């Protein structure tokens, strides 16, 4: 593998990010090393809109109270996330802000291509350097197995992996995506960067796999 560790990420929240879960997977042992999980308090949404949204989304899953008790602004989430990465030796401010022997893995391009830059604008922070490239699991899956999977659930079904927890609770989805990553690593898949943002224009993204899910 090109990387020693994979950071599996699956955000929740359409208007603003509401949940930010990341699992570290050791590329060699395929074991989960650690978990980072924060609920995110929106910056621009009205209190009324937030309450309605959280009640609907997380109320159904029974975690709306936990969300209200623990959610913090995205800027603070990023600061705590960077401290966590640094603890694991995967990032340092001095090294151009890029990841050290690690890469993000997402199920699709939306999380890092679209949502994180949007949230950075809303939260009035610069886009961190470590969000300049990522691995879209769908593309690696397509090229390795030679079959198409449009999402996490279809990947799991095709691999015969049972869905655990609640679909669309970010932390559970991240754990389920991690189980697909572990299966693929065990089957011999090599994970390479599938998308890279242009440094001169952050909106421009180059997709590095010719055969990919569009």
From TrEMBL:
Residues 9-180 form the Exonuclease domain. InterPro entries: 3-5_Exoribonuclease, ERI-1_3'hExo-like, Ribonucl_H, RNaseH-like_sf, RNaseH_sf. SUPFAM superfamilies: Ribonuclease H-like (SSF53098). Keywords: Exonuclease, Hydrolase, Nuclease. Gene3D superfamilies: Ribonuclease H-like superfamily/Ribonuclease H. GO terms for molecular function: 3'-5'-RNA exonuclease activity; nucleic acid binding. The keyword rRNA-binding does not apply. CDD domains: ERI-1_3'hExo_like (cd06133). The keyword Nuclease applies. Transmembrane segments: none annotated. This is Putative exonuclease domain-containing protein. It comes from Noccaea caerulescens (Alpine penny-cress).
């Amino acid at each position: 593998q090109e990387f020693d560790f994979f950071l599996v990420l699956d955000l929740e929240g359409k208007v603003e990010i509401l949940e930010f879960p990341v699992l570290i997977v050791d590329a060699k042992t395929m074991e989960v090393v650690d978990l980072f999980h924060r609920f995110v308090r929106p910056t621009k949404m009205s209190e009324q809109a937030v309450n309605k949204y959280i009640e609907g989304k997380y109320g159904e899953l029974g975690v709306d109270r936990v969300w209200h008790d623990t959610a913090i602004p995205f800027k603070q989430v990023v600061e705590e996330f960077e401290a966590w990465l640094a603890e694991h030796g995967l990032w340092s401010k001095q090294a151009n802000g890029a990841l050290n022997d690690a890469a993000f893995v997402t199920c699709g391009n939306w999380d890092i291509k679209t949502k994180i830059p949007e949230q950075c604008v809303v939260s009035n922070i610069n886009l961190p350097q470590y969000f300049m490239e990522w691995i879209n699991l769908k593309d690696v899956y397509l090229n390795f197995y030679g079959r198409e999977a449009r999402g996490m659930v279809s990947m799991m079904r095709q691999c015969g992996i049972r869905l655990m927890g609640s679909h669309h609770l970010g932390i559970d989805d991240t754990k389920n995506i991690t189980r697909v990553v572990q299966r693929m690593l065990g089957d011999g898949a090599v994970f390479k960067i599938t998308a890279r943002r242009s440094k001169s224009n952050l909106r421009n993204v180059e997709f590095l796999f010719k055969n990919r899910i569009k």
